[in-house]
Amino acid sequence: MLKNMFQRALSMIAEDLRFGKVFWIGAFAIVRRSQLLQLYGRIAQLEWFAIREKESTQEFGTPVNADKRSVVFLHNSYYNFYYLARALRKRGWDAISVSVEDPNGPNANFYHGNDLSLYDPSPTQMRANIEHFFNESTRRFHMVHFYGKGHMSFFPSEFDSGDSSTRLPLDFLKLKQRGTKVGYSVCGCLDGVSQTTFNSWSVGCCDRCVWQNNPVVCNDRSNLAWGHKVAMFCDLISCEGFPALDYQSGPKAYREPLTTAIDPEIWNPNLAIPEQFRLAREEGELIVYHAVGNFELRASGGRNLKGTGAVVKAVDRLRSEGMNVRLEFRSNVPNIDVRYFQVQADVIVDQLNHGRYGATAREGMMLGRPTICHINKAERSPEDRLESIETCPLVSANEETVYDVLRDLLLDAERRRRIGIESRKFAMKWHSADSCAERFEQVYDRLMMGFPPASN
After folding, report:
1. Are residues 215 and 75 in the same domain?
2. Domain span at residue 358?
3. CB neighbours (10 Å) of residue 309?
């Protein structure tokens, strides 16, 4: 039975992958067919799927709530999936966010919770939890949307490791066989984009990144192998405003913000600040906020992608020139609490090298705070330009210009006020949970009708 099922799994994807002795991404050989037999031979999982195959007659009948829009958001994408699922439920969806991570793990600071945790300290019980939920998912949800490079499975034991992305996600194959749509939200510049390509587009950003020479985290072969796998299996690649490079482009890519959902009441410009989070401030003192999550891992040997050193130097120079300003630097604070510090700042400084904006800038704009962030609007062709990038009210600066940009902004209270108002409007349009839910619903409907997601 196992042999027959494995042969069927290979035949299901043979036509799409066009297996030969080798298949290629650009100049990179990804995997030989002989390697598949070795690397995909996950006996425990195959045995479970073989048993499940006997019980598949019922699940291939009419799904639960067949006419109802439904999606499971799998794995944590900061807090974004949690708020997006909630907003979709307000629109009548069956939508939940699901995690398999330890709720007290190293990334817990970035999360605001989830609708369902399958984690258990007992590996046996945790696998049983996942198997039970996967069984339910095959009948309940029309779409699975996941996050995390290498995490194309409900089962952590089946996550990709190394640089070849060669694990066969049998659970996802089962869903695809059933007709379930699969979506994916990219996690950054290394997600389906080669380091060489991104370094060229960003004019040397990688030279400031601690991961540039760490092939375990980022290298051309690994980045592109994963991108190829995502492109093969997924119906939707949500690129969240990143440039149209390598696998973050093409007909499956939706490039405007889609799943980076924020609750505008959580990040409210007028939120009440608990006493323990109030910042001491001298009369007339200006506060510049800057933060780096996992700072110890992301800054080393003079490399710091966010440009923290340049921010510190700029503030120190302004102080030496007599400006009443100070830097409020934070790291490893639970994200749910970070907003209390952000909203008290006169200016927020996010990254100064990458070229597109991330969580700190989104949060700053939703809080109505003028935010400095390096924005590179360049695209390979004019039709790839994004409205969200072209109209973004972020004040652009890099490490060389941040002193001048910061000084001018701190000296002009009225300009800060105007930018703050425009920032809130922008964030409501592109990142409020309700606006993301509306766009996600439009994309979902297109996918269910057999159309590509349409990016812009």
Report:
1. yes
2. 275-431
3. 15
Helix (H, G, I), strand (E, B) or coil at 343: coil
> What backbone torsions phi and psi does residue 321 show, to the nearest 5 degrees?
-90, 0
Q: What is the CA radius of gyration of the chain?
A: 23
Which pTM was predicted? Answer: 0.86
Report the alpha-carbon distance of residue 186 to residue 246 in Å, rounded: 13
Distance CA 380, CA 210 (A): 26
Question: Can you tell me the distance from the alpha carbon of 287 to that of 401, in angstroms, rounded to the nearest whole number?
Answer: 19
> Quick check: is 44 in a domain?
no
pLDDT in tens, 97-132: 999 999 999 899 999 999 999 999 999 999 999 999
**Same structural domain for residues 306 and 220?**
no
DSSP label of 27: T
Residue matched to tokens 């119906």: 235
Domain count, the chain: 2
**One domain, residues 106 and 182:** yes
Residue 294 sits in the same domain as residue 388: yes
Give the integer Cα–Cα distance in Å for 399 and 353: 7
End-to-end CA distance of the chain: 47
- Alpha-carbon distance of 123 to 173, in angstroms, equals 23
Tell me which H or E stretch contains 10: helix 2-17
Tens of pLDDT, residues 49-77: 555 555 544 444 445 677 899 999 999 99
State the pLDDT at residue 352: 96
Angle, CA of 449, 451 and 452, to the nearest 5° = 140
